[in-house]
Hints:
Helix content is 40%, strand content 16%.
Amino acid sequence: MTRVCITADDFGLRPENDEVIVDLARAGRLDAVAVMVHEDASLDTVTRLDGHAAIGLHLVLVGERPLRPDALRPLLDHEGRLPRAWSWLFGAIARQPSLAEALRLEVGAQLDRFASLGLPLGFVNAHQHAHLFPLVWRIVRGELAARSLEPAIRVARGWHPKDLAIVGAQRLAFAIAGMPTCSTPLVAHGLAWSGHASRERVGATLAAISARPPPGGLAEIVLHPGAKAQGAAARHAQWRYRWADEADLLAMGTLDRLCAEHGLVRAAPR
Length: 270
């Protein structure tokens, strides 16, 4: 049977979302949780995930305050935040290539902060999938090797225009810097609607996974469950993510039923 991993991204974005994610993981509704560890990440409840879902690092190289602001100063805005999108990040580094070293220091700092949590590193991905672009992938691959780590890596799959940009960047990144060393990558599907899930969108994506399983990988559905957006920071609210709706899809067992309907078995990365 084809296996599929249900992952919650963005743990650490806001405490209200974290509580929802913890409850879903402890209820068996999630297989994996991707944890942010940037400067402002909320990590008070992260240890409650241990033993209830695979835990991975969600690298944050855009939109938030970094752990190494000293090195990244030329990239930061007046609030000390990184560029809001990967296109702006890479554009700035293209104009000032020496900042690539500062980015390496930040990736290393986030890996080390995750290690300080005392949790197993099951997988690695990144905010806005920035780890799949050549410059960042070379850095991530090198920093993982330096620490003798071989976690599962999220790779992208899909034919939506939003997917194709990431898939194209990923192919170039792997050609330049080498493939992930993990034996079983997490093959993410439905990235075009991630954050805006509905029963219909998830069902169609699961049907596609069932019809065409990823060879040699574990299929992944990426969700962003959380609490209602009231009180969210303006920079997060502008995404218009359906945090509460995605949480309901999980809490009510809708994804479990859809997986069963399409002959898919839930599994966590190993």
